[in-house]
Amino acid sequence: MKLKSLFLLALAASAAPVFAADVIVSGQISASTTWTATNRYQLQGKVYVVNGATLTIEPGTVVQGRLSSGNDAAALVITRGAKINASGTPEKPIIFTSELDNLNGNLTARDVGLWGGVVILGNAAINSRSDSAIVAAPITDQIEGIVLSGGDTTLGTYGGTNDDDNSGTFRYVSIRHGGAIVGTANELNGLSMGGVGRGTTIEFIEVFANRDDAFEWFGGTVNCRYLVAAFSGDDCFDYDQGYRGNLQFLFALQGDNRQNDSDDGYLGDKGFELDGATAPEATATPMGGGTIFNATMIGIGGSARPNGAAGANNVGMHMRDNGAHKIYNSVFVDYANIFQVDADEQPRIDAGDLKFENNTYFSHLAANNVLNSTGGTGYFSSGSALRPSLYSAGLNVNVNPLLRGISRSANRLLDPRPATNSPLLAVGSTTTPSGTFFSSTTYRGAFGTSNWAAGWTKLWVDGWFALESAGTSDVPILSGSANKFINVSTRGFVGTGDQVMIVGFVIPAGQAQTVLIRGVGPTLGLAPFSFPGVIADPTIEIYKAGVATAIATNDNWSGTQVSTISAQVGAFALAAGSADSALVMNLEPGGYTVIAKGKGTATGVAIVEVYEID
User: Fold this and answer.
1) From the CB of residue 24, how many other CB atoms can be counted at a distance below 10 Å?
2) pLDDT in tens, 4-47
3) Cβ distance 178 to 206 under 8 Å?
C-alpha cells in the first residue's frame, strides 16, 4: 500500500505484482541461463539444470511451480556438476511458490503440497543408501521425491568423493507451499540437499508450509545458517546418510497446517530428526552426524491432533542410527517431549561423540517438565531408550525461556527473541564453538536482540512476526507492496506550543508498511540550499489514531539506515552530524500524525516528509 496524499482515504488491498512476461520452463537447462526479476517463471514439471550449467536468478525474482502432483510435480533440480547462483537480498528475496500464490497473503499455512520444491545435488560423500543396499565406495544414491529410470537416473544421482564440492550460492530465498506427494512415503521436501559439498553457500532460507520436511540433508558436508522452517507437515530439519556439516541459527515454528480437519498426517512431527546411516549402520564411513549451534525450536504446543491428543507425539529431536550428533546453545519450547534417543546411539554416547550441551527445554505440559529416567512422561519420549545423563551432564536446563511472543496466527504476535529478563541471555550459559564457520554468541537460541528473519520471509511480510519500529539500529523492510506512491512533503514554520506543525497520513488496510519520516531544518540552511530562517533543532513525534501517547520520537537522526533509505527513495541527504530528525518505522494500517516542534525554544522553517519504503 502506498501513501497517496497528505490525508489519505483507505484503499483496497494491493493487487498482485505485475510482470513483463510469464516464462514457462520445462525439461533441461543445459547452458548457463539468467532469470530476471522483471519476468515470472513457471516450472512445468521437473526442471533440471545439467551439463555443468549455472542458473543465475536475480534478486526479487518469483518462480512458481505449476499445480501438480505425483511424479509430474514441479520442481527445480540442480544436478551434480551444475550450479545455482540465487543471491537475493533482504529487500528483494527470491521467492519459490505455487502458481496459486498471488503474493498478497491469499495462501496460508494450510496450503501445502501445491508443487514440489527445490533440489540441490552434489559430489560430496554419503555413507549409505536410502534402500539400505550395501555397495562399494564411492556410494551414490537417487534423491527422494523423484522417480527416474534408465539413462535419466543421472539426473537424480548424488554422492561422490569431493567434500569440498561447490553447487553454487543460495541466499535470501523463500520456498513456499511445496511438498507434493510423489507416492507412498515419497514426498518432496522444501529444500532437499543430496551430497552437497561445503564449497556451496546456503544461508537465509525460509521454507513455509511444506507438506513433508522443510529441510533435509542426504549426506554431504554443506554448512548452512539462518534457516527458517515454518509449518512443515513432517520434520523441520532432517539429516541422514552421513551428513557431516555445520548448522547455525535455525528457527522452527510448528503448528496446524493440515489441508483440512480430517487430514491427520500433517500437523508437524519432530523438530530435528537426526540419523547417522542406514546400512551398515554400525560401521558406515564416513561417520554421520552434524554440529548444530543456536536453534530456536517452537513445537506445536497445544494444537489438537486429530486423534485427540494435544501435541502428544511432538518431539524436539530424535537422535538415532549411530550418529555423532551435536547440539549446543539451543532452545526447545512447546514440545511434549525433548528427547527420543534410540538404543543404537549408545556406542556414540560411550565414545563421547554425541553431545547435547547448554540447551534449554520447556514444555507446555507441566508434567513433562520433570526429568524422566524410567519411562512415561518427562523430558524423554515414552518408549525411547532413556538417557537422563545426556541431559543432566551437559549444563542443560528445564526453565521457561521467556521468549517475547509465541503465536501461530498472522496477528503480529510472534517474536522468538528472548525478553530482556530471559535466562537465554545469562552470561556464561553458552558453549563457545570452534572453527571458522560458527559465530560465538552470548545467548542461547537463534536470536539475540535482533530478528534476522524479519524483512524477507513470508512470516514477516504476511503478518506473523511482530513489527520492529524506531529505536532499533536496523528496522527490517516490509517488501512486496505493489502500488506506486506519492510522497508526503510539507513546509512550514515550526516552533513550540500552538506553533507546532502537524502532518497526517494513512496506511491503507491490508498490509503493514515501512516508512521513512523526516523533520528537516538544519540541512536546509547549508549549501546547496542555504535557506534563511531554518529551525536549528527540530524534533518529531509520531502518533497513531486512538493512541494517546507518542509511539515514537526522534531528536537528532543517526545511523546508516536513514542515509541508505534516503538515497533509495531519491531524497536529499541529511548533513552528517546535523540536528535534523528522522525515523524508520514499520506501521500497521491506520491513521498517523507527525508533530514537528522545536527543541527548547528553537523556532524556524522546516520540512516534514513521509516516504513509503518498498
Assistant:
1) 12
2) 333 332 233 344 578 999 999 999 999 999 999 999 999 999 99
3) no
